[in-house]
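Annotated sample (chain length 234).
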Amino acid sequence: MFSPNFIANPGIQKEAAEESWSFLQKKVNPVKETVPKPAVEKKKNTKAIFAIYIWAACILLVIAWAGLFMNPKPKVSPDMVLNQVIDLIIESGYMKELQLAEAHFNPDFVKVTIKAGELSALQNFTLGYRKEDQIPYEIFRKNNVNYVSLNFPWVGNKKGGSLETLKALATKTVFSNKISINFSGNNFELHGRSSDIISYLLQMADNGLIQKFTLSVFHLESGQFYLKVQANQV
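Output written by the structure step:
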């Protein structure tokens, strides 16, 4: 056996020739192209946008909490609350459908309780309170009588006022001949007609005294009204 060699010189070769042809193609390593990596940049942009959203959400949350603490209760005018009570006192004198049962002016809130024979009368009365004035109320039944209790925001003067001022104010108020006034300890009590209670409450309001005392108005079974005024503790 011999291997033909067309590259070396002709003749018998002493040793194996180093010259040869190769029909095998030389493997060439493909050139790796540098491809940009947009996914990394996109990921960085996504993180930045997410951080902005988180920051904005935190700002909105802080504003919301600040609004809750700065305005924890709806603002209601003291005159509006007093007028509401006076209107109910007037209507209780001739209306049987709705009547004022009692009203309590506390340092932090005013609680007004109204009674009615028919539940529908109370339901019609409370229409619009939650939507417009945001006044919380509760409807309940006791001894076969329907009641609704409303809580109005109120800011009383904790320094209070003097009972001597109430005595002086009583001498300036025009009452009916059915009036009864008593002073006992730290309390001022007035029994009379609805007009007597209204006259005295308006005198207190005109002299800036309504918010300086804790007072209660009761509608008695006899038809008369009872006003109890107590000086706030200093």
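Annotation: The first helix runs from residue 38 to 70.
Annotation: The radius of gyration is 46 Å.
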